[in-house]
């Protein structure tokens, strides 16, 4: 017996001696950059070493209605199979920080959140799909529309977000199914003295996040969005809109594995039409549309049709213009709100502005309506001869709502609105409310008419021009791009409004420029591929979208 034991021990020893010469089949895998989806110049490279085009679908995960607990009714394992069969290769997985951390116990992370994420990783792996984690709602609140400004005003929230990202990245540093980390969704920052300083607060924080993630996760890609917007916390100023171009809003990060992200919902009045929370109530439009997006005008002054004062109610005066038909002279019409001499302490307020088109048979169509309840100035453009004056959103609107405010000028300030191509034989009118406060002059509401030599309208060429700005940035700096969100609200698929064509054109353009893309969203009432409430299992599928995805994504 002793001899048998001795021989067995000798055998085991001989195996141990020769183990170093065996393939490391039983050793822990040593990962390299090539095991992960990563950036390489303008390209995104897959785990097979080939150029990868991200074709993604957003999983919203009920980040707003149920942020603290996983929602198993939002999507299931079958979701990943369905999306894979349609040709998607990735999901953009929305996160609310509350899934992992309670405000009452900061830095104490809930395993339930990670268990839900682990389950989704398992499903994605089964159907050969990737996951991009997107911090849709960080500490301090939802960023989009400027609602979560405490991320910037309370530095403790930045520390908590940094720590959370570090924890997530540490846990999944060896998980190639996680394609990357989307740091902050559609971020707003406080408006500072200059636009450069305004952007820098975002740039500095992003660089800190990248550094902390890289300390624990060297190989996953990091998705960095361009600065979305700025909000004046005093309510007296508005950002300089023409400044928001990729050159100014993308941070320059010294890391070779950054994927630069932007979102595209252009034109906004189409993708978000007839939606109260978006400020587009009552507005519907089709794609393509002859409505104007840009124009080159003849020199000289345009004709104006001023509204007459109709009545005064509690300081608000109702204005309404006569219907005007001058299509023999002009081809473009647009609303204009004018305030003269507000001074430093005065202001002019405007609310419920409506532009109406009247057909030869008397049928009235609302072209646009501004109620400002969304808290944004939509597509209004401020102009003054000397550059003075501010445009902002005020809570001093009619019936306790919001309105637009002009202040801070001794000259005339004009807010120019959405432009429309005029139809022969049709007439146009404008109506709305205005009031003044400590002004030497008066507010005015009018329609402006102009002769455009060149008109750019809402069509595929227009969409191409929007995306090309980012494509040019990608080429200039040799960095990859990702359209992290695009989509059309439910209203855009109704009554022949051609939401399907918009989506189809947008996919074509992304493929043309080698830009990865992500459709928003899989399951929600407004933008959803499935359009029922996400407290129920997915139902009410957009079958037209399903057919389009199957055709486009499997090419």
Description of the structure:
The protein is of the alpha/beta class and 555 residues long. It folds into two domains: 55-271 and 466-553, Alpha-Beta Barrel (TIM Barrel), CATH 3.20.20; 289-457, no CATH class. Helix content is 25%, strand content 30%. It has helices spanning 2-18, 77-86, 111-126, 150-153, 155-171, 195-216, 246-249, 268-271, 460-477, 499-512, 543-553, and strands spanning 38-40, 43-45, 55-59, 90-96, 130-137, 178-182, 188-190, 221-225, 229-231, 258-264, 289-297, 303-306, 308-313, 316-320, 332-340, 343-358, 364-370, 381-384, 390-394, 403-409, 412-416, 420-421, 427-437, 443-450, 452-458, 481-486, 516-519. The strands form six sheets. Strands 3-4-5-6-8-10-26-27 form an eight-stranded parallel barrel. Strands 13, 14, 16, 17, 19, 20 and 23 form a seven-stranded antiparallel sheet that branches. Strands 12, 15, 18, 21, 22 and 24 form a six-stranded antiparallel sheet that branches. Helix 2 links the parallel strand 3 (55-59) and strand 4 (90-96). Helix 5 runs parallel beside helix 6 (195-216), helix 9 runs parallel beside helix 10 (499-512) and helix 10 (499-512) runs parallel beside helix 11 (543-553). The radius of gyration is 27 Å and the shape is globular. The termini are far apart. Mean pLDDT is 90; it is low at 1-6 and 8-26.
């Amino acid at each position: 017996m002793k001899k048998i034991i001795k021989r067995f021990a000798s055998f085991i020893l001989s195996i141990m001696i020769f183990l170093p010469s065996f393939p490391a089949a039983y050793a822990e895998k040593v990962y390299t950059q090539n095991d992960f989806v990563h950036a390489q110049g303008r390209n995104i490279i897959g785990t097979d070493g080939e150029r990868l085009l991200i074709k993604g679908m957003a999983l919203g995960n009920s980040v707003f209605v149920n942020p603290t607990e996983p929602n198993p009714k939002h999507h299931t394992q079958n979701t990943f199979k369905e999306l894979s069969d349609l040709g998607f290769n990735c999901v953009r997985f929305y996160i609310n920080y509350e899934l992992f951390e309670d405000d009452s116990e900061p830095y104490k992370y809930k395993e339930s959140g990670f268990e839900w994420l682990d389950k989704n990783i398992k499903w994605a792996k089964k159907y050969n799909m990737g996951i991009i984690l997107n911090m849709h709602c960080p500490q301090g609140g939802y960023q989009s529309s400027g609602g979560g400004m405490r991320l910037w005003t309370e530095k403790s929230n930045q520390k908590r977000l940094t720590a959370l990202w570090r924890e997530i990245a540490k846990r999944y540093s060896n998980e190639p199914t996680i394609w990357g980390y989307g740091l902050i969704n559609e971020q707003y920052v406080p408006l500072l003295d200059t636009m450069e300083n305004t952007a820098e607060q975002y740039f500095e924080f992003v660089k800190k996040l990248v550094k902390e993630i890289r300390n624990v996760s060297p190989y996953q890609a990091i998705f960095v969005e361009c600065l979305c917007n700025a909000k004046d916390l005093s309510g007296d100023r508005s950002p300089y809109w023409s400044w928001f171009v990729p050159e100014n809003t993308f941070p320059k990060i010294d890391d070779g594995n950054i994927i630069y992200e932007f979102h595209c919902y252009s034109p906004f009045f189409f993708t978000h039409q007839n939606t109260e929370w978006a400020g587009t109530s009552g507005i519907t439009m089709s794609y393509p549309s002859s409505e104007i997006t840009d124009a080159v005008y003849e020199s000289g002054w345009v004709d104006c049709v001023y509204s007459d004062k109709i009545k005064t109610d509690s300081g608000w005066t109702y204005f309404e213009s006569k219907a005007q038909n001058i299509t023999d002279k002009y081809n473009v019409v647009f609303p204009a709100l004018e305030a003269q001499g507000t001074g430093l302490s005065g202001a002019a307020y405007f609310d419920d502005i409506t532009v109406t088109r009247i057909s030869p048979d008397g049928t009235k169509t609302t072209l646009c309506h501004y109620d400002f309840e969304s808290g944004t100035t939509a597509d209004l453009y401020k102009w003054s001869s000397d550059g003075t004056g501010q445009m902002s959103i005020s809570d001093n609107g009619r019936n306790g709502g919001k309105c637009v405010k002009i202040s801070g000028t001794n000259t005339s300030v004009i807010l120019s609105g959405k432009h429309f191509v005029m139809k022969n034989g049709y007439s146009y009118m404008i109506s709305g409310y205005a009031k003044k406060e400590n002004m030497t002059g008066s507010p005015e509401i009018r329609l402006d008419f102009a002769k455009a030599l060149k008109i750019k309208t809402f069509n595929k060429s227009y969409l191409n021009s929007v995306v090309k700005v980012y494509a040019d940035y990608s080429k200039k700096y040799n960095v990859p791009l990702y359209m992290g969100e695009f989509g059309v609200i439910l209203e855009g698929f109704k009554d022949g409004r051609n939401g399907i064509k918009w989506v189809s054109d947008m996919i074509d353009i992304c493929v043309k420029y080698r830009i990865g893309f992500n459709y928003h969203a899989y399951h929600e009432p407004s933008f959803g591929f499935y359009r029922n409430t996400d407290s129920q299992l997915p139902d009410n599928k957009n079958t037209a979208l399903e057919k389009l995805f199957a055709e486009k994504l499997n090419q």
